[in-house]
Design goal:
- By secondary structure, the chain is an all-alpha fold.
- It has 3 helices and no strands.
- The chain is 68% helix and 0% strand.
- The longest helix has 15 residues.
């Protein structure tokens, strides 16, 4: 993730990190708000 954050365009850096946090929270059984949106952000 560190490398992805460093190489991402500045306007998208924090979106990717927040998306990863949301997906990670969902994996532990707590549906996070915007889970589907986060997955989409991580795919692009």
């Amino acid at each position: 993730m560190t490398e992805e954050f460093a190489t991402a365009r500045p306007e998208f850096r924090w979106r990717h990190l927040i998306g990863l946090a949301r997906v990670s929270a969902s994996e532990y059984g707590w549906p996070a708000p915007g889970r589907d949106q986060a997955r989409d952000l991580l795919r692009t």
